[in-house]
Specification:
By secondary structure, the protein is α/β, with parallel strands linked by helices. It is 34% helix and 21% strand. The strands form 2 sheets. Strands 7-6-5-9-8-10 form a 6-stranded parallel sheet.
Length: 240
């Protein structure tokens, strides 16, 4: 078995590497300094065309790293398919909770998220909006392959980590909850830890009790909640 095959297929269940499925995670990994150890393509011409259109800044590096593999191996490397003809693995950065809490800019704290896709979407939004970092409280690994795919690999753009419970911090904690006061511009400064809970249960009482403020997004009467990533996006863009 070739080393690249074992490395890529093993990346799906490894906590030491990050699985990169498709051009978007690969391009962001390259842009933000990831160490890509293995990369495979089964359509070099197609990959080159996509890179020309979507990632010209990293095209040369991308094509130099990619190993050509038979088309028949594509389904073995990516049983569920990938949106573009490239897949690989990168070294997983060592990021601590303190790295996230010490980041410049508001930090998003997701309490007990249930879906890796939502975790990845939150990270993607946080990176786009210029947040300092994302901290997951609970069991969900922000580097899970599904989360990386949903985030388009933007875990490499800002510090992300996981913890069992939010440690003590000097940063002010603001909870996003429907019962809070209306969130208005200027209410979320760079020091804030913005805590968001699940769509069903919201923020737990434990973290509500630690919050210095509870804020809510204005919504049409009869609408009870927003998707997790949508709520984070609206809060970041409205509250800054």
């Amino acid at each position: 078995m070739p080393r690249w095959y074992a490395a890529i297929t093993g990346g799906r269940n490894s906590t030491d590497v990050v699985l990169l499925e498709g051009l978007h995670p690969v391009k962001h990994a390259l842009r933000f300094g990831a160490i890509i150890t293995h990369l495979a393509t089964w359509d070099r011409a197609g990959l080159a065309s996509l890179a020309t259109a979507l990632a010209p800044d990293v095209k040369e590096t991308l094509l130099a790293l990619a190993v050509d593999v038979p088309l028949a191996d594509a389904s073995l490397l990516a049983p569920k398919g990938v949106p573009s003809p490239v897949i690989g693995v990168a070294a997983r950065p060592i990021v601590t909770v303190n790295d996230v809490l010490g980041a410049t800019g508001p930090v998003i704290v997701c309490e007990n998220p249930r879906h890796f896709g939502n975790v990845g979407a939150v990270i993607r939004v946080a990176a786009a909006a210029g947040a300092g970092g994302v901290l997951i409280v609970g069991d969900a690994d922000p580097w899970h392959p599904t989360a990386v795919r949903a985030a388009a690999g933007l875990q490499f753009a800002l510090p992300v980590a996981r913890c069992d419970e939010l440690p003590e911090t000097n940063r002010p904690i603001v909870a996003l909850d429907g019962a809070g006061e209306t969130l208005n511009p200027g209410m979320l400064d760079d020091a804030v830890l913005l805590v968001v809970g699940t769509e069903r249960a919201g923020v737990t009482q434990t973290l509500r009790d630690r919050a210095v403020q509870t804020v809510a997004l204005p919504m049409r009467p009869g609408v009870s909640s927003l998707n997790l990533a949508t709520a984070v996006a609206a809060a970041l863009y409205r509250g800054r």
